[in-house]
Write a structure and sequence with these properties.
mainly beta; 6-stranded mixed beta sheet; 5-stranded mixed beta sheet
Length: 429
């Protein structure tokens, strides 16, 4: 009898162990990945597709090219390598082997680099184009991650990109919100997905979407379900669920002429680097909307002092000043834009100026060029508010993109079968 009890206890413990191991394996496999932030000495990461040069998360058609550029301020001509991985809709690793999504090889050294020429800040500029002789093409659509490693196989930074097939159309309409509390402040994205000849099977389960404003995936809306269908078209006519804050136009500065001020730069000083002092900004929330042309958060490197913008552009310490009399209630004000991939960290936080009341300051080391930026609020609970400083308007000019994913019944990965684009200049009631 005693032996029977021991056997029974052993079987129970063995079963629990198997269940626990299975759970651990499942959670490990289903773990979502995030981009790795670069160290302080890696600057000016430009990552774009063949159709957009203003750097962000590239969304490219199958067969199009990618371009990655970045600077290493150690100027040591270090050996860096790249790898490419494929992911599901939710950014968990896909089940595809590398030879199923990539033709050719990765884990290749970056051969295209050059040192800065006649600049105060020395740096090595690296350049990578995909596809290339080693990585010849992407075989399938979907979510991808490009990872840059050093010679010790330590990851330096990573960036997401998306490859799509043009199998369906995504027709977008931008509307003003019908929510009474947010009239005049929000924009709503309605869209239809489909094309004659493409049949969706069980679209509630097989179709997923991402709606993105200004290439900012921090505020993207994920996995809206179709409300109904009209023939081969899936219809998405949400109001609250697909609404975005209208925000305000981005602020900007242009220091391509590093030695003198402009309409946005109050003065320039030369110390260890050029110092560009911007005119003070103010709180725009509560003020009437004023159209100010922008590139919706992007940036572009440029210089008037050299022929090659990649290795002859200077680095400058850009000084930002914000006059703010709003109660922060323990929260923080941050600089925001595509110049650092919309990341909020210690480097972007505005700090109180001890010499001037209700004034916040910060400075960033940035490469010469044209930059968009704005100020955003992060409350003490970590909640993000884009309109706290800048305000929200339903007539703000914003770019929108709808990305359509499809995993057919029995398929092993999520394809991206279509992309739609629209601008809020065409907003309707």
């Amino acid at each position: 009898m005693r032996n029977t009890k021991l056997v029974f206890k052993y079987l129970i413990s063995k079963t629990l162990a198997i269940i626990l191991i299975s759970f651990i394996n499942f959670t490990t496999k289903a773990q979502q990945v995030y981009e790795t932030l670069p160290p302080d000495y890696i600057k000016t990461i430009e990552f774009y597709g063949s159709q957009n040069e203003f750097s962000g998360t590239p969304v490219i058609a199958l067969g199009e090219s990618l371009h990655l550029k970045f600077d290493d301020l150690t100027a040591s001509e270090s050996d860096y390598y790249y790898e490419i991985e494929h992911f599901n809709f939710d950014w968990t690793p896909s089940k595809l082997a590398k030879n199923e999504f990539l033709e050719g090889f990765d884990n290749i050294r970056l051969f295209d680099f050059k040192n800065s020429f006649s600049t105060l800040q020395s740096y090595t500029h690296y350049d990578l184009k995909l596809p290339n002789n080693n990585t010849r093409r992407f075989k399938v659509s979907g979510n991808y991650m490009l990872k840059i490693y050093n010679s010790d196989k330590q990851i330096l930074f990573s960036r997401k990109f998306i490859v799509f097939e043009n199998l369906v159309n995504a027709a977008i309409t931008i509307r003003r919100t019908r929510e009474l509390d947010f009239i005049g402040q929000k924009q709503v994205v309605n869209f239809e997905v489909g094309r004659d000849g493409f049949i969706f099977r069980n679209p509630e389960q097989t179709v997923k979407t991402v709606v993105v404003q200004n290439n900012d995936f921090n505020t993207a809306i994920y996995d809206l379900k179709p409300q109904f269908n009209q023939g081969n078209k899936l219809i998405y006519r949400y109001d609250k669920e697909s609404s975005f804050w209208g925000g305000n136009e981005y602020l900007n500065f242009d220091n391509k002429d590093i030695r003198q001020g402009t309409s946005r730069i109050q003065r320039v000083e030369l110390n260890d680097l050029y110092n560009s002092y911007l005119y003070p900004n103010f709180v725009r929330d509560g003020r009437r909307y004023t159209f100010n042309p922008d590139i919706n958060g992007g940036f572009r490197i440029n210089t008037m002092q050299g022929q090659d913008v990649d290795n002859e552009s200077e680095y400058a310490r850009v000084h930002f000043t914000l006059q703010n009399n709003k109660d922060l209630d323990g929260g923080e004000i941050h600089l925001y834009g595509r110049f650092n991939n919309y990341v909020l960290d210690d480097s972007t936080m505005m700090l109180p100026d001890e010499r001037r009341k209700d004034t916040y300051v910060n400075d960033l080391v940035l490469k010469q060029g044209f930059y968009n930026y704005k100020y955003v609020y992060l409350d003490k609970n970590g909640n993000f508010d884009e309109g706290f400083i800048s305000g929200n308007h339903d007539i703000t000019e914003n770019d929108y993109q709808v990305i359509v994913y499809y995993r057919d019944i029995g398929a092993r990965f999520d394809r991206v079968i279509g992309v739609g684009n629209a601008n809020s200049r065409d907003i309707i009631n």
